[in-house]
Amino acid sequence: MSKSLPYSMKDVHYDNAKFRRRSCLKLITQSVLTSKKHDCTSCSTGKFLVLLMIGGLVYLMLTHASSSDSVGRIAKDMGTEAGDHLITNGSSSFARFWRKPPRLPPRLSPDEMGSNNSSRHEAEKLNVASKWRARQQGVRNAFIHAWSGYKSYAMGHDELMPLSQRGVDGLGGLGATVVDALDTAMIMGIDEIVSEAGSWIEKHLPERINEKGQVNLFETTIRVLGGLLSAYHLSGGQQGKNLAHKGPEPVVYLENARNLADRLLTAFTSSPTAIPFSDVILRDNTAHPAPDGLSSTSEVSTLQLEFNYLSSLTGDPKYSTESMKVLEHLKTLPKVEGLVPIYISPNNGEFSGENIRLGSRGDSYYEYLLKVWLQRRENNLTYLHDMYEEAMKGVRHLLVRKSSPNGLVFVGELPYGPNGAFSPKMDHLVCFLSGNLALGATKGITKEVAMKANLLTFEDLEHLKLAEELAKTCFEMYSVTSTGLAPEIAYFNVEGNSEGAADGGNKSSKYVHDIVINHADRHNLLRPETVESLFVLYRITEDPKYREWGWEIFKAFEKYTKVGSGGYTSLDDVTVLPPRRRDKMETFFLGETLKYLYLLFGDKTVIALDEFVFNTEAHPFPIIKGSSGME
Fold first, then answer.
1. Is 605 marked as binding a ligand?
2. Keywords assigned by UniProt (predicted)?
3. CA separation for the pair 214, 201 (Å, rounded)
């Protein structure tokens, strides 16, 4: 039998004495009324004491009110600081006696708290957006400065030499800078430059195409043909974007593109194999191989985006048919885990030599395997995606290494094939691979969206990881130098490697002993590959660090390559201050480098990666829907 508890139900209603603040009057009254030892209200004496206590409290309250009024009147009459002091002291004595519990600040409801947090978040987003708009404007100003130098000293020539203030024609004399820069001006909304470049193309390019001599098939296709096709779309051709408010009618760009492509087709039709010759004589409509008889693997396999898009626009399949024969033929050739040598013969259609690398003469072969598949996904060209996936496995197995002592991930070379020694050499050109891996993983949508939709395979995640690691390495190739600009070629210290100790000059860099920069490799050509990958990675991962890295690179370009009279110049040596200047502004600085920086700092919906594919010269083409004009 349980014993009764040592308290009664009355105690349950004790008004939370430990936790609730109560007034002095209530405390005294409750103590008197609930006393267990003596019920004060049951006798006349107790009742008298209770009445006396209540009367005293009433007296104190009336006295306080009266004294406060009199003090206020006296203070009003005095009208001095002493009066203010009197008011304060007169009221404070009773306040000390009759002290109320402190008031706690009001607590916000969850909805109100969410509203406040949302407001702060919106303000922060506005500040961030404002910062990047200002930085994007800085890139736009740089483009205007580069164009002003070209227009003043080299208009109509292929390239500007900004230090000697003259133009040179190293790409066949088709005004390559004009065409390469045009769609950048359209994207930036610089109508004056669009008008100047468009007018030049309308007046002078047809004659140049008909009368000029030798041009390189690859360079002319990616820069001039690609630039014309992109300008056609962005100026509103065939229901395009119509970003250009000035300049000629869009058909002008398409007509010049078709005229040029008809002549370039000679490189395909003149060859005894599916592999085109490397050079074309425009005025004669003839073609021939390079002096050594070989073509670069990257060059013959980096023509298809342009020719496919031209077929789509014109409805004529001949451009696509000839260019796609190259990839169909390459599919049949033997490879090393998907990797290919950097030379191929148009005479017998076979690879030449064993040199395997993703730098010069090899790079864009791997780029276009993915991008041509993306451009024509509705045509079910699965063999291209299979070739790309196999090649990326080969890259990870045979070419990826880590540097010593700090473990930078890099892509090396096999100059003597898979059975020869590995070379820890990495061209700046290889930095395209980071963005390409990310693009191949998500097909242009953000990582977050792809993850939520369960679209990423294990291989895709591995490619994204490698993409981010390579982007880190490429950025450190910049930050390790005295100028903050990358060399053309870097070597990496690895275990057992005896490369020289020539570093980038920035002794404060953590990676100063990981990256070796030989004297012959210290030049910078204003190349775009790193900022290209930063742009793609920011669009896909949404990680703001890629924007910040891009900003650091842009500041270095501004500081060390800008020429006061107009234009920007290549550098001879990025490891010394001040750097020696080379006197050359490549067309791709306007066509690629500044375009990618502008897009990196801007609205993520402009030229969306799941709607457009960029050719290797950064000219965006819309992804082809259906099979119009295709074989």
1. no
2. Calcium, Disulfide bond, Glycosidase, Hydrolase, Metal-binding
3. 20
